Amino acid sequence: MPGTDEDTVAAADDALYVLTAVLLTPAKFPSVLGDDYPEACAALGLAPLADGYGLVLGQDGAGARWTVVIDDVSLVAVAIATWDCGMEYDLSPDDRTVVAALPGWPLDVAVAAPGVPAPHDPAPEVDDGPPLTPPDTTVWGSAQRRLGADEIAVHWSVWRDQISDSDFTPPQAAGDTAFEEADARDGNDSDRDGSPGGEKATPKGGSAVRRVLAEARAYVDTPPPLGRVRSSFAPGDARTLRADGPGWSLVARTDDIAFVLLDDAPGEVLPVGRGPELPGLLEALDKMAVRPL
């Protein structure tokens, strides 16, 4: 949610007109930037501090794009929550909280400050380095795969309604994989309405899904980089789980099924039934997941 016209912070020796802000913490970071918190920090050239950062995106008086990094995470969290409620909030960090002023924006911003030139990259400075640019999401890849997982997590009920319990195979015989996967249906049935990114729930890709589940289970014994597994609020007593790894993303509800997205399966969303083992895996992942404070 954009800030108000009066929201300004000091950056690059000029006032910054605040357009929006996001959190960069182990439990909540723009997943388009990476599979985990350290990777997202590295995309901005930042050290992965335990408490994280707030990112303030805006324009200077000449219209140039700037990203101001601050270590007052609570201030940014309050601003975002207030904006989400449709209210104004003057996001004005103290200069002592500013960690860096980086040229460019690491994320797409759909709004612009009134009364200044259109958004553009600032003139290059030797000390600033190349300006930040959003990851390319015009073609399927890791960034688009993670955005697809974000979409499922936010609109879980829409995606869950595409799948019924009858879409899954009966429990496997002993010695086979214990995770149930959906049977391949005819082409017309799998062409359901997907997300704005074009993803569709298509129950196939069994061996790839089993590999993802095995890698996710390995996280329980060998903790991955911080932020690879995150747990957030869900209705009732459930939690929404998000796990990412090399080339894959998993979204699940602890009381329900899971969905898997793969770099190698452009635009496909692969559902995983609960079966006898998925509940235990989700419970174990939830116990070791990072949670918002």
Automatic annotation (TrEMBL):
It comes from the Bacteria. Residues 182-194 have a biased composition (Basic and acidic residues). Residues 116-140, 165-207 are annotated as: Disordered. This is Integral membrane protein.
